[in-house]
Amino acid sequence: MKPEHVEEFFRRLAERLPDPRSELEFESPFTLLVAVVLSAQATDASVNKATPALFELANTPEKMVALGEPRIQDLIRTIGLYRTKAKNIIKLSEMLIAEHDSKVPRTREALQRLPGVGRKTANVVLNVAFAEPTIAVDTHIFRVGNRTGLARGVTPEQVETRLEKAVPARYKLHAHHWLILHGRYICTARKPNCPECVVNDLCAFKAKTTLEPPKTLRVKPARTPGRKAKAQRGRARLAMRSA
Asked: Which residues, 6+ apart, have CB-to-CB distance to 23 below 8 Å?
């Protein structure tokens, strides 16, 4: 995508949603970190259903460790991979207490050393909690980047690197949210809502959906047998009777 098109792409997304926010519910950098860890291979909606009860009991690393792994499992049982995630939450809480004075670190390297925290999770925390202009590439952003031609790549890191280069500096802080929300609600995986897309004309996706009804095939009516065919069938019946 040409630089002038990228500029217009984000100008339109920003005009439509001037102040994008994470859909995960949290109250501090620590609860955000826990929520993002829980959201791996799960929806934000499912995480938001489980975390209010969890955070009411444990909203600091010390309280989380005191709560214990079995109790955490009970509270997040509705989320996929809840056993592994409960274990990681305990371990990362212990590391925060031991190595970071119970505070969430503000570097990608330190965040990625925490159990259950990958590059995407670290980028989300840096962006949302600390207003760093990072771009966390999830399945939605990976799809939008490749489908639109904004930033093509075969791995999330390739798409992230190309987005970092392509996105104008003044849009970079919110680029992550604009792209993820666009992918979640407009540029969906199975049937993108192209008629409602504000960047439709800038997008390189060839199989755009439309509001036009599908074309119906005209089926020709069966031909009625002519006189010659009727005469042939009549002679055949007579031949069978005489036989």
From this structure: 44, 45, 48, 181
Q: Which domain holds residue 61?
A: 1-212
Per-residue pLDDT, 219: 47
Task: Tell whether 6 is covered by a domain.
Answer: yes
Would you say residue 91 has pLDDT above 50? yes
Listed residue (52, 66, 72) closest to 102, CA to CA: 66
Whether the CB-CB separation of 119 and 157 falls below 8 Å is answered with: yes
Asked if 82 contacts 64 with a C-beta cutoff of 8 angstroms, the reply is: no
- What dihedral do alpha carbons 21, 27, 29, 31 form, nearest 10°? -110
Specify if 165 maps to a domain.
Answer: yes
Residues 6+ apart with CB under 8 A from 5: 202
The pTM score is: 0.82
Domain CATH number, residue 105 = 1.10.340.30
Q: Which residues contact 241 (CB under 8 A, 6 or more apart)?
A: none
- The average pLDDT across 66-90 equals 97
Higher pLDDT, 231 or 219: 231
Domain count for the chain: 1
Query: Which amino acid would we find at residue 204?
Result: A
Residue 234 lies in a domain: no
Enumerate the active-site residues: 120, 138
Asked, for residue 151, whether it belongs to a domain, the answer is yes
Task: Write the pLDDT tens digit of every residue in 13-60.
Answer: 999 999 999 999 999 999 999 999 999 999 999 999 999 999 999 999
